[in-house]
Amino acid sequence: MPVPFPVLQGLDMARHNDEVGATYGNIYLLGSLQSNTDPNFHGFKSYYLIAWLIKEPIPLQILFIWGLVKVGRRRTEDSFVFREGLLLASAGVLVLALSLLSKAQIGIRHILPALGIEVIIAGAAFSDRGTFSSGKRRILAALVIWLALSTLSYLCLARIPSVSETVDFQR
To answer: Where are the beta strands (DSSP E) in 3-130?
Structure first.
């Protein structure tokens, strides 16, 4: 095989861990707790879509939809397939494959490449901004400010205590 052995070994280990659930606990989604050791449980099919909608900032989702509309309006068959279509297809394959084939649904970190593609497509909302009315410019500015504040709120609220705050060195 033209693939290094450690890569194949890592894929085998990931598949084994997915089958036996040895490296993660039970899986929870929207009020339902499922055991990873239950042979009948094959993962929540909508886990990554729901996690995406819950965990991604609302203004980024709005910009993503706006970007999709912009891409859809200006596309020609050739340009769409080789530009945004390829990105969207790869993101879709990643999310669908993980949703349908993996029981290790332990956060959105597995779909981070798809989230990067979301940001790229959201950037299409800013194309042709020179021709926008002042109202559309204000809406874009408000979404960017809202996104920045949302991101900063995560940083402020999810502050990890330092070692000196969690360990009493005088004992």
So the answer is: 27-29, 32-34
Tell me whether residue 35 is in a domain: no
Q: What are the φ and ψ backbone dihedral angles of 27, each rounded to 5 degrees?
A: -115, 130
- pLDDT tens string 8-32: 777 777 777 767 666 666 777 788 8
Q: Is residue 27 part of a domain?
A: no
Find out whether 67 and 123 touch, Cβ atoms under 8 Å.
yes
Q: What is the pLDDT of residues 41-64, one digit of tens each?
A: 777 778 888 888 888 899 999 999
Please check whether residue 9 lies inside any domain of the structure.
no
C-alpha neighbours within 13 Å on the C-beta side of residue 101: 10
* Strand partners of residue 34: 27
Give the integer Cα–Cα distance in Å for 147 and 124.
16
Q: How many domains does the structure of the chain reveal?
A: 1
